[in-house]
Structures are given as C-alpha cells and as structure tokens.
Amino acid sequence: MSRSHKSTILFVLIVTAMDTAGLGIIYPVLPQLIQDLINTDVSSAATYGGWLTFAYALMQFVFAPVLGNLSDRHGRRIVLLISLLGFAIDCLFLAFAQHIIWLFIGRFIAGIAGASYSVASACIADISNDENRTENFGYINAAYSSGLIIGPVIGGLLGQFGTHIPFIAAAILSFGNFIFGYFMFPETLEKKDRRKFEVKRANPYGAFKHLSKFPAVITLIVAMFFVAISGHSMPSVWAYFTIEKFDWDTRLIGYSLAFLGVLSIVVQSWLVRLLAKKFGDAKMTIFGLLSSICGLLLIAFSAVEWLLFPAMMIYVIGSVQRTGFQSIITSNVAKNEQGELQGSLSSLLGLSTIIAPPLLTMAFTFFTKDESSGLYFPGTPYLIAVGLTVISLLIMIKKYRSI
C-alpha cells in the first residue's frame, strides 16, 4: 500500500471514529439530561431519546445522498472537511442547551454532518481492490467501533461533572480532526473519474431508485436494512434498559459501551480479515447473523448483570456481517458511482435510524410503564431486534448460492 493510501485510510478512520463518537457521546448522559430539562422519569425519557435519534436520522437520510453525490462531483476531501466543521458546531450548540428544543436542533445539525460516513466509505472504495476491499472495510468498521469507545467514555466520565461538559470535549476533538485533515488528507477521487452532479440523483428517492440498478445485490441491501434496524437496539435502548433493570449510573453505562467498542475493534480489525480469508464474505455474513441473534436473545432474557457481558461478546462477534454485506455490495459497483452508492446505502441506513429508535424506545416505554402488569418486560426491544435479524438471515441464506 502506498504512503498516500495509508495517510488516506488513517484520516478516514479518524473521521469515522469521530462521527460515531459524536453520536455515542450523548447516550450515557442523555437519560439524565432529558430528565433534567423536562422533569420526567427514565421510562418517559426513553421516548424523547428515541425522537432525538429520529431527528438525527432524518437529516442523515436526506443529506447522505447529497454529500455522496457532491463527493462524486467535487471530490471526497472538501466534503469531509466541511462536515467536520459542521459537527464541531453541533457539539458546541448542545454544550449550552437550556431547553429540550435545543437538543432537537442540535441533532438536526449533527445528522447533516454525520452523513459524511457515506463519503468516508467512498474513500475506502476508491483506494481498494478485490484483494484488500474486505480488509479495508473491516478497518473502517473498526474505526466506527472505536467511536463507540470514545463517545461513551467521554460522555460517561465527563458527564459526572455536568451533562453539558462532554459536548465541549467532542467539539475540541472534531476541530482538531479538521486541522489534521486539512494538512494531511489527499484527494482519493481523480478528476477523470468524477461525474456531473444531478439533483434528481442526490435525494432519497433518487438514491433508492439508483439502488434498483443493481438487481444482483438488491435483496442483500434489503437484508442489510433489516439488520440495521436491529442494530439500533444497542445504542438506542441500552442506557434505559440497564437503568431500569439493574439501576446502572452514567459511569457504568459508559464503561459497558466502551467494552462493546473495544470488542468491536478486535472483531473488525482482526476477526473479519481471518474469517473472510478462510470462509469468504458470504459464509462470514451468515455466521455473523447467527451470532447476533444469540447475543440479542441473551441480553433480552438476562436476569443477572454478569450475563450481559458474555451476551455482548457474542453479539459483537456477529458484527462481522456488516463488513460482509458492505464488501459484497461494493464489489458490484463502478468507481465513479461509489460515492452515490455509499450515499444511497447511508440514506437507507438513515431510514433505519428514523424507524428504529422511536419504535424500540416506545416499545421499551410501553413494556416498562407498570412493573406490576403482566406486560412488564424491559427486554422487549431486543426481541424485536431478534425477529428482524432472523429475516435478514433467511434472505442471506436464500441468496447464498448465487454469491
């Protein structure tokens, strides 16, 4: 790998980690922050938390194809740098929030900036070939997982000094990443590979219509969509679930999500490469889906705290399916359409984020309102996640022979 490619991968990994940290930093402190702002209990706060994530996802859903298409026209570098600045502004906005409305406005801004993940993925596709594509996407997913460490740790530790403090730290980190990228990040899309920006393609409808051009992988994209909804059961519900069932504080929530992130880095940077070389992307994806199902079931029915940690380990091992899906789908698309493809996929994943947090958090609220009722079961969102993952598994098994 050339030195410029190494520099590119390093920057893209940092961008991805920071984007994830920006979303994850809010989770340990969000329950308390919402309760402070609107004077409510944790069960009701969960519903507000779901709608805050909805606000983030709505903007990502709309702007992911826009940024992806802009990067196909103007290059990846300028789009990523602007997104980083936007994210830093969002963090400062949330740091001084005095009303719940401020949180919603901040999440809108973060959703626009967070759409840069599609451009980061396009950068990886630009510099990858058949030999290293899966490995490189494993690295970017490992970076995504590292953000799960950075965000919750910052949120959990600094949150002890005030619910607004973690966002100031995130703003500083994001601006530092912008400075690093400005001087160190080279462009990955050559001018000869760029194409004209078209409004009809730079929107969610155009993005989904574009995906229909690839009938060979459209069913895999559907499977990826269902498992993406399932994946939101961890970030969207985890804090509320552990508070309700085991009376955890922000510190324990932050540490547990950091543990999740450490495991994810190991899985994405090492296990993905091992499984892909030994079994191929398709078998690795099926294995990952099965593992995810087992982990989610253990979390849903956990009666003691210690069981959560082996359950998380099994669940995180299952995350190899995400890299498998990405590698299979990306290998079927031309270089000058990678930005549009990744934007389309990000928009689809944004749609999953629009659907999942309200669905899962409202299910949590409904099944935790009254502990004396026969309907009380805090693990309900994880059972919903199991059902969705089973659907993805059935699709993948049916598709397996043609991959």
UniProtKB/TrEMBL annotation:
InterPro entries: MFS (IPR011701), MFS_dom (IPR020846), MFS_trans_sf (IPR036259), Tet-R_TetA/multi-R_MdtG-like (IPR001958). Keywords: Membrane, Transmembrane, Transmembrane helix, Transport. The keyword Transport applies. Residues 8-403 form the Major facilitator superfamily (MFS) profile domain. PANTHER family: MAJOR FACILITATOR SUPERFAMILY (MFS) PROFILE DOMAIN-CONTAINING PROTEIN, MAJOR FACILITATOR SUPERFAMILY DOMAIN-CONTAINING PROTEIN 10. The keyword Membrane applies. It is a multi-pass membrane protein. It is found in: Membrane. Its main location: membrane. This is TCR/Tet family MFS transporter. It comes from the Bacteria. It comes from Galbibacter pacificus. The chain crosses the membrane at residues 48-67, 79-102, 108-127, 139-159, 165-185, 214-232, 252-272, 284-301, 345-367, 379-397.
